[in-house]
Amino acid sequence: MHTNTISDAIIRVRDLTVRFGERTIFENVSFDVPRGKVFVILGGSGCGKSTLLRTLTGLVTPAQGSISYDEAEFIGSVHEARRAILRKFGILFQSGGLFASMTLAENIALPIQEATNLNEERISEIVAIKLASVGLQSFDAFLPAEISGGMKKRAGIARAMALDPEILFFDEPSAGLDPISSAALDNLIRELNKALGTTMIVVTHELQSIDAIADEVIMLDKSARGIIARGTLSEVKAHTEDKRVYNFFHRIAE
After folding, report:
1. What is the pTM of this model?
2. I need a surface site. Which of 12, 90, 156, 204 has the fewest CB within 10 A?
């Protein structure tokens, strides 16, 4: 199967192992994320997809292994070195992660206010651009409770993009959405990737979303405690020698 060369990898993961107490979630996981692509982490429930994403973003500390962003080692980094890496990415959590008491504009302005010394006029201009990029230019004064689930996800993406990150992480972006809203969100992810060239790492088990957005994938398996397939989407779909991979893509219960 396809393997990324070092030169085109923005993230390199080597021998990553995560344990919670005596329970091993995955072990000795290694892969590269190609720059500017939509990279999907897929697999069945309980295989460690979201745990892997949280490890990549520093929310979970692994038992062993390394994660590097553009040659800079993330595991064990501290102070300014760690902050420099954290500034490279934005995150869309399953819920959207918006503050309920703040308008959409205020939610998006918050990370800009915290990370920069820009004046309010310039911040307002950036907020307007980010809202327009996700089709919410007329909803700046709305509270999260006043908009739909799909719109909350779009607003969450706008906030994740507030500081123009090189990498965007999405944790189950279609969770809780109806099929139409889910398809619209998939289209938005592809459009933003094409327009901005931002590397995107998406955790999902939704087959339609995987088909719509994935450039490259890795598939995790709970029993294997690691990766059982990797490559382009077409390569992984053709990986019929592993029954677990075949069953996943053909929705066959074991």
Report:
1. 0.90
2. 12
Q: Is the pLDDT of residue 7 over 70?
A: no
Contact 204, 172 (CB under 8 A): yes
CA trace torsion 79, 85, 90, 93 (10° rounding)? -70
Q: Is the pLDDT of residue 10 over 80?
A: yes
- For residue range 110-155, list pLDDT tens digits in order: 999 998 999 999 999 999 999 999 999 999 999 999 999 999 999 9
Whether residue 174 contacts residue 186, with contact meaning beta carbons closer than 8 Å, is answered with yes
Q: Which CATH architecture has domain 36-49+87-249?
A: 3-Layer(aba) Sandwich (3.40)
Q: In the chain, what percentage of residues exceed pLDDT 70?
A: 95
Question: Which distant-in-sequence residues (6+ apart) come within 8 Å of 244 by Cβ?
Answer: 221, 224, 228
Q: Residues 138, 139, 145, CA angle at the centre, nearest 5°?
A: 160
Q: Spell out the domain ranges in the chain.
A: 36-49+87-249
Closest of 64, 83, 89, 85 to residue 73, by C-alpha = 85
Nearest to 32, CA basis, from 75, 66, 63, 61:
66
CB-based contacts of 209, cutoff 8 Å, min separation 6: 173, 174, 182, 186, 202
